[in-house]
Amino acid sequence: MTDDARRVPARRRRLLQLVPVLAIVASVLVLTACGSSNNKSSSTSSSTGSAQAANAPKGAPIVTYTFADVNTQGPQYKNIQETSRIYADWVNAHGGIKGRPLEAKFCDAKGTPTDATACARKAVADKAVAVVGSFSFTGDAIVPTLASGNTAYWGMCCAISAAELTSPDSFPMGNQPLYSVGLIKRAKQDGCKKTNGVIIQGAEAFKPIMQNAAKSYGLPIGKYITLPATARDYSPQVAEATGGGVDCLVMIVSETPYIAWMPAFAQSGSKARMYGPQGNLNDKVAKGFEQVTNGDVVAGMYPDISLPQWKNFRAAISQYKADPAQDYNSLGGMGTWAAYEGFKQVVEGMSGPVTNTSFLAAAKTAKINLPGMLPPEDFAKTWNKDGGPKGFDRLVDRCVIFSKLDNGKLKPLTTTFEDVSQAAGGKNPQSCG
Amino acid sequence: MQEVIRFALLGFGVGALYALASQGLIVIYRGSGVLNFALGAIGMAAAYLWWELTTNHGWAFLPALVAGVLFAAAIGAVTHLLIMRPLRSAAPLVRVIATLGVLITLQSIAVLRYQATPKFVPSKLPTDVWKIHGTIVISVDRLILLGIALAMTVVLWLLYRYTRFGLGTSAVAENERAASSLGWSPDLIATANWALGCGLAGAAAILIVPIVTLQPQVLTNLLIAATAAALVAGFRSFPIAFVAGLLIGIGQTEINRYVTTPGWGQAVPFIVIVLWLVVRGQALPLRDYLLQRLPSVGTGRINWGGAAFAVAVAVFLVSTTSPLWIDAFTVTFCVALVLLSIVVLTGYAGQLSLAQYAIAGVGAWVAGRLCSSQGLPFWLGLIIGVAATIPIGVLFALPAVRTRGINLAVVTLGLGTAVQLILFDNQDYTGGIAGTQIKSPSLFGLNIDANPHPTRYGIFALICLVLASLAVANIRRGRSGRRLIAVRTNERAAAALGISVPGAKLYAFGVSAAIAALGGILLAFRSTSITYNVFDNFTSITSVGFAMIGGIGYLAGPILGAQLAPGAIDGRILDELGTGVSKYIPLIGGVSLILLVLANQNGIARESIAQLAFLRSKLAGALPFLRPRKRAAWKLPETAERAETVTPRTLEVRDVTVRYGGTTAVDSVSLSVGPGQVVGLIGPNGAGKTTLIDAVTGFAKSAGGAILLDGREIHSWSPVKRARAGIGRSFQSLELFEDSTVLDNLRAASDPRDLLSYVRDLVYPVNPELPSEVIGAIREFRLEDDLDRQTEDLPYGRRRLLAIARAVATQPSILLLDEPAAGLGDIESAELASLVRRLADEWGIGVLLIEHDMNFVMSVCDELVVLDFGRKIAAGSPAEVRNDPMVIAAYLGQQEDELTGEERLPRQAGVSSQEGE
Predict the structure, then answer these.
(1) What is the ipTM metric for this complex?
(2) Relative to the CA of B152, which of A224, A296, B88, B723 has its CA 20 to 30 Å away?
């Protein structure tokens, strides 16, 4: 080793001599930070709002967490972060929750399972009452950790992982993946003659539900085309999907590949109407293709943001200066807002201390009523207790609502929720209110 | 049929993109020998600039295009001058990692500035659709792109074939030093090629973003697939790359159309990579391969005190910190296991794999699916997962038997990506909607679930890491380690010593697969709901970077490198520093990677060990227990001065012919070497002497004749089998294992070749006593005082002696010495001559000696065989040959009667150049 060190040029050796110093500094940082980790979560942002003096909430804040992928090279959901922030500002300006201020912390899951787990651990370590209104592609890395810390994963729009759909500590308020059933329902109602399905790779689990729905509604689907997950020249997939006189496409495709799909679709000259999911087939996708997407149908779980029930949300966006670059008429925006509204209802219905365990217990029998935002939801009657098929245990929202693209803008198509439980393989219908 | 044609035409679009991307890769590879993984990101930078200028600043298409292309060219030139040029003699691995640093840096900047959300960019090309027949259509913009790709191919082909710049690039690629001496500046050529390649990438990126959208990662994904086309073209031929790109695009489109199982279509380029290299198995034209310095390797010796202290600190931290920190430590341990697998495979065996995370994922997948669907307990799933991954690792090694260096990196990247696309990304194989749900892991009735019991799980991961590290240390110190290091350093020399090169590679892949699988399983089982998306190809690439930063040849390297991984310690520290820092972590990572690669290619571990030793020696004054204990030098056992004679064997060469293409290098040459006989093989340069030795030892294929050892035809034997049968050799260029000690060189030669040691070394490395022949050789060659020295530190004369001693240490019956006295002084030559004579007389070794020093030859040889232009022109005793007119003519190019007596052999022959032939 001494010989090796001798061979290193002096200038480089001087540089390298810094290495142990840096290592020591790093070790000190580790030890320092380890010691303080329980008291501080500096990678989280939080908002307690600027409460007005008149009805300022008092007492210890109710701490929640919201997770989303922000600093990632994949899809980013800063709208979720922004919505959780402005909700806290808004609710604290309006008396807080049960008279206490809301401290809505945010943790960036960065699109990796490891960071998502770290977020879950952080929430548990901070004794968060619940993790509210989150979305991550890595729910499997979140829910088990929260469950072991008796912390509810509350109110997410879009349960996408097995753990989110089945864990008793998971409380999805959105209807994912049942909007796919809604798409088929609507396609049938619209008189589609020849329909194909397009599914983004990784979402193949939608296929059995869609097949059930197609059978139930009597809408034959010619074939299902799998769209490669990474954006590329989609012309071959477009050709396959639209060939043979297809007039309707039922699509389970996320926003990023949708944007890459559009040029090839437009170029194909196909007149097929696209049926896509809320938050994915949206204004951004339609930009530059306003004519091509005109009349395309969007199935979702939340009605359009322009409707009266979202008045407070719209006001908060404006009043608390939510990042204008984000899309709030989306699952991320409306879903997070609705999740916090649901959280508030549960907490305000609780007696005794508001802790993670008491909230979890209350959540398991909670009845949520957010008129116009969501159908009535009863967590005592999750789908596994109400005749639902295996694998979708936790769904309490089986109702869909529709929008359509009108000259590049989303407009409400329906204003009432429609049940799709039985078409999706369930035994009993749900009252959609 | 119409459908097939229709989709074939649609494949032109994708194919044109691959063709364009592969051209840029080839330009840079031809110019500088670097596989530039950053090319897609450089193209992306150009495309973003173009987009910003046209969208936000109102520039017209063409000026913005020019600005984008110039920007990309500038990034390329700067990358070469500031990063790749200082690394020009670094190992391929180091240069690949440097390009990775550039990639991460550029992508991080793009995400910070533009976010990852894709931007739709309207096409500036006509987007009409041209109807050919029936449903067969093709869009005009794809046709134009195809035309551009074709035009670019033609222009590049002409440029490199007919211009001074192209000729210069070829000259530099063939032989940098020779080209320099002819006035070509390799740096200028490389810089120009980098600028050209990156400029082309910029142009291509700007043209294709309307099709694939503008976002940070999409062009890099495209580029990795395009590597297949460049590979098929040997990273050399533009027309072949163009055709290959199109065919891959068409193949991908057709498979997507007709194969419903997801993943197969996207996997096409990667399957092409694997098949191509397995079938062709031909190395890329790696430039100055022998000049490339490999990262250094540790000794495998363990400082037990230090190790115990480190483990105690780790246990303390895992036991006392918050779950958030414990998870960061656990992730560090798990990732360190994956990096440890890279130490075995790349550090020790020199096999550059870019699939270690895929292999780790296979382990996690096997264990996860078994525990989930069959309800196996954790421990059993773990064992089966590790065991089942070993054959997969060996399967990944099959291409390695035929390829090396960057080729191997590309083929493993292809294999890993194919596994990811076909297996991990396919819900049919990962549990469908239910996913992979497992019960809480437990061991011996103790619940070690990482969620409720993070400390238990963390300590279990630590124990696994410690045990695996001990096993790897054992490998390094044992016979297996010497074999791996020998293969890493010089495959030819290893084979000449009877070391099975494929066997060593398969072993390295197998062991590293097991270790990676262990890391993968532990990483995945931290959650009771297992996902496989962490085991992607990009993480495989970055993990090699982490391993290198830590120290790819050192046991401490993985734990240092693993701290950089997502979710590990460093990220935790940065997280604690504040949210403002968090978003810069990828950028910091990319820049750090570049700086660390430039500052220290051997990794942090080596310098840290040296610095700790220095610190320890300083503290030892006050704390005597820290005083370093001097390791006793290895002592030569007392044994008989002279070894027993070797097994007597006779080598017969009968009418052997060797041809290289149309050139006959050896033409019907016959000779015989018996026990105790020294036969000299002489002739002018280019006579075919070394080629004949290569044919005898199996390194060159003979086109005719017979080679017999004790009457047995050995024509079909591999070099290893011939070596083990008693045919030893030395090399003209020595080909020592430079980064091993003298003793390890000799041990590598004399170690028994039993397979059992591969297993036993994992637990208990046994270094057998040196055979008496080797001890004798050490004494004969007076190497006693050099045994613990690094080979690269020896003076030239002693290196020559070591090369012969190493050949003798294989206890050969027939020893083929290729210019053993080259570069030695008169006295040393005379001593060596006496030694060679004694090897024959006292040990009974038959020696075939190539040597230009005629005094040497005449003094030791019983018989001489003279070659000229591949043909035997004379044979007989030294006295007979000395006066043979044919020989004299061959050496001096004139008839004997034209010579004066003083010009006759041997003196004049001794002035021959000692260059190789």
Answers:
(1) 0.73
(2) B88
